[in-house]
Amino acid sequence: xxxxxxxxxxxxxxxxxxxxxxxxxxxxxxxxxxxxxxxxxxxxxxxxxxxxxxxxxxxxxxxxxxxxxxxxxxxxxxxxxxxxxxxxxxxxxxxxxxxxxxxxxxxxxxxxxxxxxxxxxxxxxxxxxxxxxxxxxxxxx
Amino acid sequence: xxxxxxxxxxxxxxxxxxxxxxxxxxxxxxxxxxxxxxxxxxxxxxxxxxxxxxxxxxx
Lengths: 141, 59
Hints:
heterodimer; A: about 140 residues; alpha+beta; Glutaredoxin; 4-stranded mixed sheet; 5 helices; B: about 60 residues; two-stranded antiparallel ribbon; 2 helices; about 35% helix
């Protein structure tokens, strides 16, 4: 059974219709001992059905070690949103509820190759001199 | 996306309880900056970026 149905599916499809450039949604998953892996993979695959510009790749966390290392994935389920390069954007855990909107937003930004951040914010980011790793902890509701 | 130096993970807290415990996540959103810094709650963009830059400079 589809996780994205009816009006929701139509709404997401119209959101993704505006993707100007190709986007990759890369899912890391495994069969066993991962409660939300299956649904996360299904969400990724269903999103891929909704836009020609959105390419979905699925890798096995246990087997595809090269890709796991390349994208520095340390837990699953994981989703990487990639545009013309890897921006370092990851979603860990099932993207449900508000997180689904965040994922959609990341896909749209990647497709636009641009964010809606203010000029001041970009200027502040330009002052960074060393790597910054952000982890935003959220819950589905 | 706007900085090659910034990587950003969105983490579903209930699925990774060991991490939620390690980073003392009691309310969401809670943002961890380079393992040591923490930003509580959802902030307006300008305040958020200021705190990220400040936390990064201390880490």
